[in-house]
């Protein structure tokens, strides 16, 4: 029989604290809620409450997650969520010792972003057929994602007041509710002008807006509501299939491609950090490795003595 456990009150209050005090994104909170619910169920199966947990129990839980074949990043996130809960209880004086103080998340192998080539990006951006409202919207979505490197959640969160086409700038609300200004390239501005016209967005506007906030959304779905993350993801996926990039392209790959291509063309690392909204420069530095490897690949394929005998 499967043991089902409701999320403990302390866990609910921890998630509220993360949202209010730490400004965590809704997607992060949803992932933590999933992790903590699984942890609560594991404790319930063993007849343990939060007050009963010891470091050995946490080690056993992590070992079980690993034995189930979870990805290192998934296990690491679960450890962060569980450790954060116990630390919160200690700081709030709801527990004595913190059983998670010595718990270290597993190391996550540093993967290289798989950027598209510039030719592949051009094929994608030039491959949106037609001039109807949906085509205008999709063209603007692709141009903005690649041209700015913003996240898919940041794209669908854009409101009309966030976009200044005359100044070619957009105000973006990133992780932790941190605001930043990103420049819009000329192709992105042209695509947005086409979309934010009576023949584009105007053609999808409903007679009556269903929800508050939809009227201010930059990107709408076919029913006239604010486009969701899943909806924008499907737009990218659909056009990827159209130009032969199925399985290789997601919105995040366009973000990777934006950063990699900028560094390839000599952009300063800190400028790219600011553009992408990375809190730490070390997060951005992974793209320098991509560019170095691409440099070596081009060198070895093009230079007549690159592979000569030593």
Task: Characterize this entry briefly.
The chain has 13 helices and three strands, in the order H-H-H-H-H-H-H-E-E-E-H-H-H-H-H-H. With 310 residues, the chain is mainly alpha-helical.
Provide tags for this entry.
about 300 residues; mainly alpha; DNA polymerase, domain 1; hpI Integrase, Chain A; about 55% helix; about 5% strand; globular
Question: What can you see in these coordinates?
Answer:
By secondary structure, the protein is mainly alpha-helical. Among the domains are: 9-91, Orthogonal Bundle (DNA polymerase, domain 1), CATH 1.10.150.130; 118-247, Orthogonal Bundle (hpI Integrase, Chain A). It is 54% helix and 4% strand. The protein has 13 helices and three strands; from the N terminus they run H-H-H-H-H-H-H-E-E-E-H-H-H-H-H-H. It has a three-stranded antiparallel sheet, with no helix packed on it. Helix 1 runs antiparallel to helix 2, helix 2 (26-45) crosses helix 4 (72-91) and helix 6 runs antiparallel to helix 8 (186-195).
Distance between the termini: 67 Å
Overall form? globular
Let me know the largest β-sheet. 3 strands, antiparallel
Poorly predicted parts: none
Mean pLDDT: 86
Main structural class: mainly alpha
The tally of beta strands, per DSSP, is 3
Whole-number radius of gyration? Answer: 23 Å
Strand order of the largest sheet: 1-2-3
User: What is the string of helix and strand elements?
Assistant: HHHHHHHEEEHHHHHH
Query: Which strand-content bin applies to the residues?
Result: under 5%
Strand and helix map with partners:
Blueprint (H helix, E strand, L loop, with lengths): L8 H12 L5 H20 L9 H13 L4 H20 L26 H8 L7 H16 L3 H5 L6 E2 L4 E5 L5 E5 L2 H10 L5 H4 L24 H14 L8 H14 L4 H8 L4 H22 L8
Antiparallel strand pairs: 1-2, 2-3
Helix pairs in contact: 1-2, 2-4, 6-8, 6-11, 11-13, 12-13
